[in-house]
Structures are given as structure tokens and as C-alpha cells.
Amino acid sequence: MVFIVVLQTGVDDRSVLEYRDALIGRLDTTFRALEFAATNDTANFQTLLRQAVSEPGVGVYLDGPDVQLPSSKVLAISMIFHELMTNALKYVHSLTPTS
After folding, report:
1. Which regions in the chain score pLDDT beneath 70?
2. Cβ atoms of residues 52 and 78 within 8 Å
3. Domain ranges across the chain
4. Cα angle 74, 78, 82; round to 5
5. pLDDT score recorded for residue 64
6. Which pLDDT value is given to residue 46?
7. Residues near 73 by beta carbon (within 8 Å), at least 6 away in sequence
């Protein structure tokens, strides 16, 4: 599993520090999801989403019905939301003017 996460962490135009931060974020999400799936039969969708996109300074507002997901779906959904969040943050930062 770790080998796959490392291979799928792109190097494209990244500094060593940017690559390290991206890899740590993906590994952290993977390990939290695996731990959650191993200790629970189901996962609350909102709890899973909050864990997957937890970044300092990032607020998440969630509203909707209570949805339970089977533990077999936890890793895939966590990684999808983590990727969406990191891509969104990357593009927001690229559009923000610097002083």
C-alpha cells in the first residue's frame, strides 16, 4: 500500500519540500483511513470527509442526511476527498496575488 502511494505521488515541477509535504499528506490520509476501516464496520460520511480534508486553516461546512458507508469504501473515498482538497488548495494559492 505504501509503495503505491509513493509511486502515485507526482513529482511534476515540485521542490523536495513540496514533494515531502504531498507524500506525508497522502500517507497520513491512507493510514487514518486504514485504521478507521479496521476498527469500524461502517463509517459516517461526514466524519470521514472531515478527516480526509483536515488541513490547518481550512474550514468545512457539511449539511445533509446521515450516511453510513461500509468500511470497505473508507480508503477510496478518503483518498478521493484528500486529492480534491489538495488540488483545490493548490489552485486557490496559484490564483491568490502575492505581496
Report:
1. 1-11, 53-59, 92-99
2. yes
3. 16-95
4. 175
5. 86
6. 84
7. 43
